[in-house]
Amino acid sequence: MKNIFSRKTFLILMALCAIAFLYFGAKGTYTAYESIVHGTAHTDVSQIHLLINGNELGSQAVIDNQIILDTITWTSTHTREGKISPGSTGYFTFELDPTGSEVAILYDIEFIDKVMDDDKIITFTNITSDRTLVRTDESTYSGIISLADIGNNQKTHITVSFEFDGDEDIIGDAIPNQVYEDLFEVNFHAVQYQGETLTPYTG
Predict the structure, then answer these.
(1) In angstroms, rounded to a whole number, what is the distance separating the alpha carbons of residues 61 and 158?
(2) Which of 61, 112, 113, 199 sits between 20 and 30 A of 138, alpha carbons compared?
(3) For 23-65, what is the HEC assignment?
(4) What is the C-alpha to C-alpha distance for residues 137 and 111, in angstroms, rounded to an integer?
């Protein structure tokens, strides 16, 4: 009888151990599951960093800005000094500086002149750059700033030549102090470059 009691006791103890093992094992698994369910993941979005003529456009994933220039250069050989008349020509330049950008950049620059908007009085005659610039739409030019360019501190310089098509003389010296919207408009858009191909406009 003593042996039977000992055997029963042993079996009971084993059963209790098994139950305890299953209980705590299941609880540990549930706790691990709970920690996974309630955990949070945080990933920083890579940012574009870009200056135009030294002016900060922002540090964000997408950049949209209207470019406001503070100076243009006029050539008016047939007009009194300080005056600009129909037929006067000129140019302006701007520099794109991507120093500090975390990603390669694809940018579009839209040039709105008298050809695109009758309310403007400037007609753009030439747009050039010291780096590859592709005309991708009727009034849009696009370029790419690679990570290698950023790493090598490469800056992009764009020069835009134009002709004044207005009906009346204007005072050239006053133009840098006024808003350029009456003359022309330059809109800028930039996103992270992800291998897109720039297709030349053929219209």
Answers:
(1) 23
(2) 61
(3) HHHHHHHHHHHHHHHHCCCCCCCCCEEEEECCEEEEEECCEEE
(4) 10
Would you state the structure tokens that stand for residue 188, as one six-digit string? 């800028």
pLDDT digits (tens, 9 = 90+) for 167-177: 666 656 555 44
Pull the structure tokens for residue 192: 């992270």
For residue 123, pLDDT over 70 is answered with yes
Q: What share of the chain is helix, strand, coil (3-state, %, to 5)?
A: 25, 35, 40
Provide φ and ψ at 170, rounded to 5°: -130, 160
Mean pLDDT of the chain: 78
SS3 92: strand
CA distance 13 to 154: 77
Q: Nearest CA to 154 among 106, 108, 98?
A: 98
